[in-house]
Amino acid sequence: MAHALYGYDGPCRNIHGHSYRLEVTLMGIPSNNSEDVKNGMVMDFTDLKKIVKEKIVDVFDHALVLNGNSPHRNIPDLNKTFEKVIFVDYQPTCENLLADFMKKIIPLFPAGIELKVIRLHETATSYAEWRAEDN
Fold it and tell me: What is the pLDDT at residue 80?
């Protein structure tokens, strides 16, 4: 995914890309029903991966994400130059993207499943993290 930080005072004000990596840690009680095909699982990893893929990866992968409140929205032929441009209503920092991603996936978790930690790596050494225990 690529982004640009409108009004920023460093090089990230220019369009640039990252190889983001998202980590999601859930908390819940594993099924203890021997008749349940999900016995021993808090949530099937396949189900979690499907949620993340549909709501985040498929939407944001190889996209250019820009602040919709910036003049970028008025760049002529931007959508002709780039196939996948997403305007968000916030500055697309790692921290704000993480908060947005949380809002997209939390409502889709089954009852009794809580988000414990979510971490978005922008680079190998830079990330934003949210922990339930801190909120």
Answer: 86
Which of 111, 127, 103 shows the shortest CA–CA distance to 42? 111
Q: Cα-atom radius of gyration of the chain, to the nearest Å?
A: 18
Question: Could you give the angle at the alpha carbon of 49 between the alpha carbons of 128 and 67, nearest 5°?
Answer: 45
Q: How far apart are CA 21 and CA 114, in angstroms?
A: 20
3-state secondary structure string across the chain: CEECCCCCCCHHHCCEECCCEEEEEEECCCCCCCCCCCCCCCCCHHHHHHHHHHHHHHHHCCCEEEECCCHHHHCCCHHHHCCCEEEECCCCCHHHHHHHHHHHHHHHCCCCCEEEEEEEECCCCCEEEEEHHHC
Which active-site residues does the annotation give? Answer: 12, 62, 122
pLDDT, tens digit (0-9, with 9 covering 90-100), for 92-113: 999 999 999 999 999 999 999 9
Alpha-carbon distance 114 to 124, whole Å? 27
pLDDT beyond 90 at 133: yes
